[in-house]
Write a structure and sequence with these properties.
By secondary structure, the chain is mainly α. It has one domain. It has 2 helices and no strands. The longest helix is centred in the middle third of the chain and has 28 residues. The protein starts with a helix and ends with a helix. It comes from Acinetobacter baumannii 99063.
Length: 43
Amino acid sequence: TIVIDYFFFDHVLTSTQVLGAGLILLGVLGVKLHWNIFALKSA
């Protein structure tokens, strides 16, 4: 299903939308990692 999803999104989304979604995903992951590190340091 991963391959099907990949090809489906690859055809439906433009490269700009993929880039935007990737940046948002990286931002969310970055915030989560930042808070996890902060929580570990304060613990």
